[in-house]
Design a protein that fits this description.
2 domains, five-stranded mixed beta barrel, seven-stranded mixed beta sheet, 10 helices, PmbA/TldD fold
Length: about 475
């Protein structure tokens, strides 16, 4: 893989490119799903290829191939150079990159139990038993699934970097759908549709205890059928991490992406209300709100030592004491913004996609109160758990989120379950209503996927947070 990565860089360099980088990626993937005690999906895949990115006359070109013989590599390099030359005829200004040292390094994500070494029969038995336990509670659909992925990647560039990294990740989830004559209700664990993928091995599946949680998940789906709709009110709202992670993703993570802010990217509801001049000035949230991006967090599916531009990763503060202070950047956008170096936020879905600015572990710092005290100090409110729907405008300002379930809080006690809760607000006003965040004992990382770019890339993302309370938030629910 190292030889292929360096070889294609040398080829493109010899064709007149002023800068070249390449990524050789080998991907192993396994996905298994059992629905109502029947195997729904059980597949595995293994692919490998190289993507090469070049700068010619100040314009980008990109090409990829899954054929790694010399002739195919030369054809791939030549195609990338041709694309760049074509782009140079219509570019508005030449691309310039923030400086970055060269690195020769290797980094392998730590895994206790290799998920690919676990017997398939054991995996299918676990999922089948989970499905059986959920069906016993009376649901109509009982699905349990597992997903595992490993990428072995070698990065090389014309500046002299040669970096090998290995990323292993694991996820597993439960889905219970209950039906009566009037409605359907869903409960999931631990995350709605993304399996809550972690940058760990089989140990994350063991810790998740899918079988132990199966009866509760299904029982709550059935309970929702007879629960009353969430009442319309303006109240305190405590949002659980599996819901708050998506809120961070949509109203912070995408809003601070430099390519959106600078107009380089606008797909998938894709601009931003943020202007670079707002750094250090914009009141993004209350003083307890501190948000950061950190690819080096252990255990996350988006943890890495170097991004897909060969930039060494590190923490970037985004919001400090409620004030916007940073953005997620690439080498190109960092130079355009006048920064000394990139934030190391460029990632591609696979070898056949060009890297894009991606939010790396954009997270909310924990607060200083326990989860129990957060509930106990809430006189009247609602606890929201698990996202069910979301909508946000192109500028990442106006949004509406729906949750799978809500629990009313009265005098510091969790009381009645309500169904179909929905809340809506405007991004800076919403985060300014945050008055308390649970401590680090409650803090966890939620991992899933995000679509961005054209052609679309289903990229890895993850967000860390604990339960947080927002005062004076409007909530309501469907009436039927």
């Amino acid at each position: 893989m190292r030889d292929v990565a360096q070889r294609v860089v040398s080829m493109a360099d010899g064709m007149g490119a002023s800068y070249v980088d390449s990524r050789v990626v080998q991907r192993e993937r396994e996905f298994i799903s059992v629905k109502n005690e029947e195997v729904e999906v059980a597949n595995s895949q293994d692919d490998m290829g190289v993507g090469v990115r070049v700068l010619v006359d100040g314009a980008w070109g990109f090409a990829s191939t899954n054929r790694l013989d010399g002739r195919s590599l030369e054809k791939c390099a030549r195609r990338a150079v041709e694309v760049a030359r074509g782009g140079a005829t219509v570019r508005k200004y030449p691309v310039q990159l923030a400086p970055e040292p060269e690195y020769q390094d290797e980094w392998i994500r730590s895994v206790e139990i290799d998920p690919f070494a676990v017997d398939m029969a054991k995996k299918l038995e676990l999922l089948t038993e989970c499905s059986k336990e959920m069906l016993r509670e009376g649901v109509g659909v009982a699905r349990a699934s597992l997903v595992f992925e490993r990428d072995t990647q070698v990065f090389a560039n014309s500046s002299g970097s040669l970096i090998r990294q290995v990323f292993t990740e694991s996820g597993g989830s439960l889905y219970a759908l209950a039906v009566n004559g009037e409605q359907t209700q869903v409960r999931t664990y631990p995350c709605t549709i993304w399996h809550d993928i972690q940058g760990e091995g089989w140990e994350t599946i063991e810790a998740r205890d899918l079988l132990g949680n199966a009866p509760r998940v299904a029982s709550e789906a059935v309970q929702l059928l007879s629960a009353r709709p969430c009442p319309e009110m303006t109240t305190d709202v405590i949002i659980a991490p599996n819901e708050l992670a998506l809120q961070i993703h949509e109203s912070v993570g995408h809003a601070v992406e430099a390519d959106r802010i600078l107009g380089h990217e606008a797909d998938f509801a894709g601009t931003s209300f943020i202007d670079p001049d707002m750094l250090g000035e914009l009141r993004y949230g209350s003083e307890v709100v501190n948000l950061f991006a950190d690819p080096t967090l252990p255990g996350s599916r988006i943890s890495y030592k170097y991004d897909d531009e060969g930039v060494k990763a590190g923490r970037v503060d985004l919001v400090r004491d409620g004030v916007l202070v940073g953005l997620t950047t690439s080498r190109e956008s960092a130079h355009e913004l006048g920064l000394d170096r990139s934030g190391g936020c460029m990632r591609a879905n696979n070898f056949d996609h060009i890297p894009l600015v991606r939010m790396p572990n954009v997270s909310l710092e924990p607060g200083d109160v326990s989860y129990e005290d957060l509930i106990a100090s809430t006189k009247k409110g609602i606890l929201l758990d698990q996202n069910r729907s979301w909508s946000i405008d192109d500028r990442r300002l106006n949004f509406q989120f729906g949750s799978e379930a809500g629990w009313l809080i009265e005098d510091g006690q969790i009381t009645e379950m309500v169904r179909d809760p929905i809340y809506a607000d405007i991004t800076p006003q919403f985060w300014s209503k945050c008055d308390a965040i649970a401590d680090e004992d409650d803090w966890r990382i939620v991992g899933y996927a995000c679509g961005k770019g054209a052609p679309s890339q289903d990229g890895r993302v993850a967000h860390g947070c604990s339960h947080a309370r927002f005062t004076g938030l409007k909530v309501g629910g469907k009436k039927s």
